[in-house]
Design goal:
By secondary structure, the protein is of the alpha/beta class. It contains seven helices and eleven strands. Strand 10 and strand 11 (about 215-220) form a beta hairpin. It starts with a strand and ends with a strand. The structure holds adenosine-5'-diphosphate (ADP) and magnesium ion (MG).
Length: about 220
């Protein structure tokens, strides 16, 4: 049986992953600060709503919904229009509210029949929950529930500046079905790049792909 794929709305990405993300999977987008994670997930949700008619939810722990709207507007993404159409919902949450997050999200997903959901980022939760085992359990449970509700999930995690790992305590990547790493290097010709570290059920590119932030958003190069 062919695998149902979700087109990302990120130019040049779908071609690298057999046409899109695996529907109902959980994708971790990891990168250091300023690597483009928030932009990446905003484009995924905006593209989903606008191009593919899939309602989405953006849970933000770090930015205000206003700053997300304003940032999107710079790339011609009218997020407010999508919100008014019931195709997008931006929810600001406090990082210590992870216990009640799932229940709240169940309601919101049903409310707009969301097909895509993003949590930007889970790093704050990682810092609030001291026990790694507890964090792992909670994350598994949360992602499982969101997938059961029929959504394709993206979570972002901040890679600490001095780290070679994919997340602060190395817990998050195990819970994800796919991991995409965004990099920002100042000394290379193409400063920004993307690497698909894992994607279950997908014959994905294993190259480092430069990407550019252009007037319409992220454009990944096939190299
Ligand atoms: N209009 C733009 N044109 C080009 N680059 C931009 C533009 N707006 C933001 N950026 C770049 O994108 C970065 C923001 O990425 P962001 O998604 O907030 O990163 P992260 O969430 O990983 O911290 C900025 O630091 C800036 O370098
Ligand atoms: Mg961010």
């Amino acid at each position: 049986m062919a695998i149902d794929r979700v087109q990302t709305g990120i130019n040049g990405l779908d071609e690298l992953v057999e046409g899109g993300l695996v529907r109902n999977s959980a994708v971790l987008v990891a990168g250091k600060t300023g690597s483009g994670k928030t932009m990446f997930i905003t484009q995924f949700l905006y593209g989903g709503a606008k191009l593919y008619r899939e309602p989405g939810i953006l849970v933000t722990t770090e930015e205000t919904s206003r700053s997300i709207r304003n940032h999107g507007a710079r790339f011609g993404w009218n997020l407010e229009e999508m919100e008014n159409k019931g195709m997008l919902k931006i929810i600001e949450v406090e990082p210590f509210s992870i216990d009640t997050l799932v229940t709240m999200l169940e309601r919101e997903i049903q409310g707009i029949h969301a097909k895509r959901i993003v949590i930007d980022s889970v790093s704050m939760f990682e810092m609030y929950i001291e026990k790694q085992l507890e964090m792992r359990k909670l994350l598994f449970k949360t992602l499982r529930r969101l997938k059961d509700l029929g959504t394709t999930v993206m979570i972002t995690a901040e890679i600490p500046e001095d780290s070679q790992a994919l997340s602060r305590y190395g817990v998050i990547e195990f819970a994800a079905d796919a991991v995409i790493v965004l990099q920002y290097l100042t000394l290379t010709k193409y400063k920004r790049s993307l690497l698909i570290r894992k994607m279950r059920d997908t014959n994905h590119s294993t190259d480092i792909h430069p990407f550019e932030i252009m007037e319409n958003g992220i454009n990944v190069m096939s190299i």
